[in-house]
Amino acid sequence: MQHKLICLLSFALLISAPGCRRRPKQPAITEEVNAKLAASQIDIGDPAFEALLRGGFYASEGGWRWTGRKFAVALTPPPGREATFLTLDFSLHSEAIQSNNAVTLTARVAGIEVGRRRYTKAGRYQFVATVPPKALEKRPATVEFEVDKTFRTSGDDRELGVIAISAELTHGVTALFDRETETARARQGYQYLLAKRGLLLPPDKQTEMMKLFHEIPIWRNMFFQNVPIEKSPLDLWMMQQIIYETQPDFIVETGTWMGGSALYWAHTLNGMGMEQSRVLTVDVQDCHATAAEHPLWKKYVTFFLASSTDPDLVSKIAALVKGKKTLITLDSDHSMGHVLQELNAYAPLVSPGSYIVVEDTHLDGVPTDPSFGPGPMAAVRKFLEQGGSKKFEQDLTREAYVMTFNPGGWLKRRPGR
After folding, report:
1. Residues 261 and 293 sit within 8 Å (Cβ to Cβ)
2. Which of 347, 351, 413, 411 is nearest to 381 (CA)?
3. What's the pLDDT score for residue 217?
4. Domain with 377 in it: what CATH number?
5. Which stretches of 104-232 are DSSP H helices?
6. Taking the model in full, what pTM does it have?
7. Which residues, 6+ apart, have CB-to-CB distance to 336 below 8 Å?
8. Omega within 30 of 0 (cis) for the link into 18
9. One domain, residues 167 and 269
């Protein structure tokens, strides 16, 4: 949900070809972020990523760009030993199919072909391919795309390929799931939750409030002690209550970004006199220099530069929290596959009676972003269906304020399980 050059984690732009709709959460790019020209994911229409476009693109149309026959970007893969996937989010215009019957898209990383797909219908697609390690030896990696056929519109001499929205290198495995099916089930899951909440406010009013609250730009400019923090203030309030109730020895957070939330957890621990407790926070990019200067950060917080699903990192954190009361919050890459990997990796570390909080389930649940998904809500559903419900339950009492960014994402470990 951040607009940043190096620290962009996992949200896709929204498009209805050829028009588009962006999520409003776009804080200003800081000098700290601008200092590093590297990103594992880029929004192609965003001027902030202009330096990472390597040719073949026309002028930005807001949230997207037309491409020519060949187009390329520079991407820096996230750290970690897991398999790396290349994803291009794009739309194929109806005139491309009318003119050519079919279009084949080929992708190469460092000159090595990683995938080729043939498309016979207009629409929005996610091209996904596995990237071999040898193609990622040079950082950033040059990622090239090519379509075998282009077209021209009436009165426009440009050679047009596809409508490019975003490109990324990730460790996520959302490609293993059917996008439309899982997104639809996430929407259904949210409606089910509304009925289970049992609040006096009718479900349609709850949804309306959620959408309005998400569109209000107040949290675009939220800071905690001068450090950006992008969370619902009501969720932060609920988290401090959970921290008070569970008295964790460790709070494990995936998705550090600028460090605002980790600093907030540290402040909460300090205010409750929990001086022996600690915060472990993980991100694939190092953007928290300002937060790290705070005395409470130095006392309570340990930062790990790594992919949250890296087996080595998970093992290291598991060793640190073994036998301790542990609270976990997931707020990194919001694709379904990545969140599901995080749930499977970190759920066993949660102590009985404590929580693993899956953040931003509103994205593909409410949905506040109608074209986004599958994401965190879909991952929660899959996790519970695959056996997670034996040890965890969705604690809807944590949604009493209605306007939570985490509907259905407050997962409490059953006592004694």
Report:
1. no
2. 411
3. 66
4. 3.40.50.150
5. 179-197, 203-215
6. 0.69
7. 172, 174, 177, 182, 364, 373, 374, 375, 376, 378, 379, 382
8. yes
9. no
